[in-house]
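The freezer alarm interrupted the setup, so I double-checked each line after restarting. Inputs confirmed:
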Amino acid sequence: MKFPSLFSPLQIGPYQLRHRVAMAPLTRMRAARPSLVPRPLNVEYYAQRATAGGLIIAEASPVVATGFGNPAVPGIYTEAQVAGWREVVDAVHRKGGIIFLQLWHVGRVSHSSFQPGGALPVAPSAVPIPSEFKAMTADGKVVDYETPRALETSEIPLMIEAYRQAAKNALAAGFDGVEIHGANGYLVEQFLQSRSNLRTDQYGGSIENRVRFLLEVTQAAIDVWGANRVGVRLSPYGIANGSGEADPMPLYSHAVKALDQLGLAYLHFIEPRSSGAGRAEVNWQDVPSAMVLYRPLWSGVLIAAGGFTGETAESAIAEGHADAIAFGRIFISNPDLPRRLHRGYPLTPYNRKTFYGGEEVGYTDYPEHDEMA
Ligand code: FNR
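Predicted 3D structure, all chains:
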């Protein structure tokens, strides 16, 4: 039997991928302001990274106005945002690419300066992010995180509806599917983990209750898309944004098993060695591997991300730990990453200073291999 490689085809839901080098969701903070609509610069960026039969997971996009914690992040809740995203999707489709949108709500990883009416951010419970983490306000000041306002039980169905409407909007924009952002310390993960969820209603307490919000959000997306065009991203051992479950195995085993019943397009793990990669160069050693630990509980397609190189991606696939690998930072600086990995071409290093915000520099000006002298 021949083992699959990074460049063998893969079926994801109804889509036939031609290779397994996916683009990870990457916040770049370059949408139009104040509309938070994707603009021609964003179209060009995604088109540069599209390949025939290649999967792009577009950057995390808030489902509602309370879901932001950063400036110039594109939304998916107004008609203009849908129209802006349609231009991105059409450009990716013209190159034969497949593009999912990541649906986001930051919960407590926000500041009142980003909130409608200057209200406090909302979260499962009124527990602030510890003060070793800092928030940045809308006008760029570094401050402690505020204590968020706990959502009333009666508000939770409205939040689920916001995800449902955003899933509909993504469908209207022409996307091929949606991914639920259940990772990195944001709202869905705040519900999952006991340090951020002190609720005493049906959304808190037991593991079953803490997983409920994730399952209801996922089900809302399934109602719109069908299960085989919905993915879920989790970071069981992540420590981003003050997250982290003391004993992740029971919680995440329950979540993965429950998700496995749904027939999703894929499950997407962030490997813990690169938790926090958005903020600093990290490569934690001696940490567990999410894909290795949870693979036995998952019968569908598994995407892994976090600190992969061409070689480690190839071996993760050959050893059966994952079916596809999502690349973040090196996809930023190598628009033709699938081809470079395939041919063994050298990679252009990325410049962290231009990750978040700005214009074309560090965004659409990274050359393809063949354009380099
Ligand atoms: C990220 N990451 C991220 N994750 C996510 O689920 N949604 C997002 O929108 C973002 N945004 C984001 C922006 C930037 C600039 C970075 C560097 C990271 C995490 C990302 O998808 C990926 O998991 C990590 O970057 C680790 O993978 P690499 O970079 O080691 O391949």
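Quick read of the result. Residues 24-27, 59-60, 102, 181, 183-184, 233, 270, 274, 277-278, 305-308, 327-329, 355 surround FNR (CB under 6 Å).
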